[in-house]
Amino acid sequence: MAAIPRQLLIRRPDDWHVHLRDGAMLRAVAPETARVFRRAIVMPNLLPPITTAAAAAAYRERILAAVDASTGFEPLMTAYLTDTIAAAELERGFAEGVFTAAKLYPARATTNAEAGVSDLAHITPALEAMERIGMPLLIHGEVTDPEVDVFDREEVFIERHLDPLLRRHQGLKVVFEHITTAEAVAFVAAGPPTLAATITPHHLQINRNAMFRGGLRPDAYCLPVAKRELHRIALRGAATSGEPRFFLGTDSAPHSRQAKESACGCAGIFNAPHALESYAQVFEQEGALERLEAFASEFGPRFYGLPRNEDRIELVRQPLEVPLMMELGGAGESPQPLVPFQAGETLPWQIKSATD
Ligand code: NCD
Ligand code: ZN
Q1: I need a surface site. Which of 106, 145, 243, 277 has the fewest CB within 10 A?
Q2: Does position 147 have pLDDT exceeding 70, yes or no?
């Protein structure tokens, strides 16, 4: 085996799936993403959801106001598909450069998905327009049928909805978001060039046991929920394979402590502070560090048809202790207590700071 390098200089990455929230939480978490990632596909599941180009443009301004302008951070906005969304609104927003993509949440599949799509037939005109103009469709791929076991919802979504959808819309660019199963890996690998998938750090790092380690662990709960070990192994294989249709999307999804530690706790893992370091750990463990750059910084822009970032970021092989709790917040605001993913663990890589 080749010796492990001490430094890694890679093209600056982008995050192709993140929740930046709004208000004080936005000001707390957005700087963590902007520090590392040049662009991010920003999820539209606010309350109310982002369904118009005007709302997306206003949200983009709030994001830009929450981050240090010197980072050059560029939020890429998405439209939240509802049963009644007008194809013309998507087309206009895309033409104006406000919308980069549109997000499909099956109604009630996850946090703030109440207004999602109840039947794909309702959005046929929207999908036809997107196919025509080259606007990608980002899919939360889980069925919401309560009869289906929660651990099977992704696999069943493929058969019932995703496969038929790809057959109906053969020119539509589709990103199967935050995949969690071996079935999804196999489906994407065998799929058309118009189909890609994002993979989160947490689905590469944990299996479902993490939610029950010594007690109920709300910080390991997200949707789609982590699955069995065999699925984690398949995801690690996909992410490190060098196959360009698997790329980085953190799905960092912060919630207040109150919302996590509750009788009905919210799904979401907050990994933004150390996401790149977490991926680097996985790629090192898989003996694939030389493929990290392509996964993190090249395959995403290639699929979206966007230029790659030109500047570089340096990772150094120095232990990084992930804090048990982070208190983040905008200047003059009361800090938000947030538990980062891998809290209390030591990661082998860290990002070299400007002062090093
Ligand atoms: C996300 C959230 O909290 O907005 N939660 C999550 O567990 N990933 C929603 C989502 O992407 O499913
Ligand atoms: Zn998400």
Answers
A1: 145
A2: yes
- Tell which one of 110, 180, 200, 203 to mutate to probe ligand 1, the residue whose CB is within 8 A of the most ligand atoms: 110
Locate all alpha helices (DSSP H) within 6-84, ordered by sequence. Answer: 23-34, 53-66
Q: Which ligand is nearest to the CA of 16?
A: 2
Q: Which residue ranges make up each domain of the chain?
A: 7-355
Does any ligand 1 atom lie closer than 6 A to the CB of residue 24? no
Q: In angstroms, what is the span from residue 174 Cα to ligand 1's centroid? A: 19
Return d(Cα 110, Cα 332) in angstroms, integer: 32
Q: Which residue, among 169, 49, 59, has the nearest Cα to 102 in the 3D structure?
A: 49
Q: What is the pLDDT of residues 233-266, one digit of tens each?
A: 999 999 999 999 999 999 999 999 999 999 999 9
Give the tens place of pLDDT for each residue, 287-318: 999 999 999 999 999 999 999 999 999 999 99
CATH number at 7-355: 3.20.20.140
The predicted-structure confidence for 89-105, as pLDDT tens digits, reads as follows 999 999 999 999 999 99
Supply 181's token pair: 């199963």
Is residue 245 lining ligand 1, measured as CB closer than 6 Å?
A: no
Residue 19 Cβ inside 6 Å of ligand 1? The answer reads yes
Please name every residue paired with 248 in a beta bridge, in sequence order, or none if there are none.
Answer: 199
Extract the tokens encoding 169.
Answer: 């819309």
The region that residue 172 occupies, defined by phi over 0 for left and psi between -120 and 50 for alpha, beta otherwise, is: beta
Quick count: other Cβ atoms within 10 Å of Cβ 60? 17
Alpha helices, H only, 140-274? 153-157, 163-168, 182-189, 201-205, 229-239, 257-260
User: Which ligand places an atom closest to the C-alpha of 341?
Assistant: 1
Dig out the tokens for 346 from the structure: 């030591």
Q: Which atom of ligand 1 is nearest to the CA of 109?
A: 12
Burial-class residue 173 by CB neighbours within 10 Å (0-12, 13-18, 19+). Answer: buried
